[in-house]
Amino acid sequence: MRHSVSAALILMTTTALPAFAQELTPAQALALIEQAAVSMNVDFKLRNQRVEGDAIVADGFKYTADEEVGLFTFTGGPIALRPSADDYDVEIDWPEQSSIRIDSREGELESLTFGVEMLGTDYRFRIADGAQRDADGVPELIDYTFDVESFAMTLLEFEEAVGEDPVDFDLNVLLSELGSVGTWAADGDQSMSGSIGSMVTEFFVDAVDGRSRSSSRSEGLSFALDTAGPLIRGETETIGPDDVLRFSFSSSGSQGSAEFGGPDGNFSYQTSSGGTAFAVGVGDGRFDFEAGASALNADIAFDMLPVPGAAFAVEEMSLDISGPILPSDEAQAASLSLGLERLTVSDTLWGLFDPQAVLPRDPATLIAEISAEIDLQEDLGGMMEMDQPPFMPRSIQIERLEADAVGAALMASGAFDFIVDGFEPIPVGKATVEVSGINQLMENLTQIGVITSSDLLPVRMMLGVFMQPNGDDSYFTEIEAAADGLISANGVPFQ
Fold first, then answer.
1. Across the chain, what does the average pLDDT equal?
2. Mean pLDDT over residues 95-123, rounded?
């Protein structure tokens, strides 16, 4: 966890140094930056620091973070902190040129050095409303605003680990119209949000076992980051109720492409999206994950398989997961939501098993919305004993389950409570299930050779026993689970 925190501090320094509202001096601002660095286990130094008039000036700066995976060093200069003329108190004259070096303790590369160029930079900060000061007048909390016209990071050089095969490697990142606002505390806690007009990445690697090249472009990006708590500050190694780590990211559109080549063949793809969103967070003893995309398209080409390529398209796609990570004396809520709407695949894939187009090729949809109450028995943020299941279900609600593909459809909903007998939870409740198009689907699968005609009879017999007709090639049933462990459908017990 410390690795991500220190890396975030380096990124924050390149894209979001703090912001400060009442008569903050450059010396107080610098003192708070130094305090925050110490709290986050980062070594911060200014080279040849001096006072010139009402400003603090230095020939350069150096951030160093020593992590398990390697040493991160961020350097640049000259730099100055001086009073600001607007409603912010202090502004930073930031160097246009700086560098980031990563000395790795694992992997094929021993070190990487990136050059960073920032043009049109505007850093300003002030004391946050209501913030207290220490005995030296240093505020405990500051606000910041940051804007930069362009941010470019380019790989300058790299060194391979001893004994590794030769490799050629390149990476470039370009951001335009980057801006953010937020708060930063002396103990390292922070909250920030911002936007990026566009982001372009280019990556290339040529090694003994193959080569790859990729590029991407995203427009209309926004992001937010909130961190707080002992774990984030490196004071402990396990998640606690006071720890907060939340990150979100979205874009209004993106395109990407990649090519891979090696001894086994070549592979390439192109993707585009009308919009994407991603959010992950830990807070109040819970974990939350959300991801989604719209108008997603992908074209794939390869020469190592019988089919030359394939194409996919999805109108809407989403995945949401929420649940507890810390134990409680009471049952806690958890949920899962999955959406895959109007998925289509190219005829090249269909042709592998259905060249005569027997199966309907209409867009497919899968939607699931499930919530539950669970007893969490292990701290998922620390080491688990694994001598018992980490959680036990108390109840589950199938609020919505829908699937529609190849001419058949399914809909289900229901609710179950659980009786815990030792380590075996016994469900008690009911669910309703409706299916349609199942007989026609079986006929079509027989026609294309997926199943044989002798397989149809037992399937139709099961439909007659466990389900009731509900229209033309449509069936309905109620599944019931009893406290004695007996499960039945349409009133007929499963044997």
1. 87
2. 90
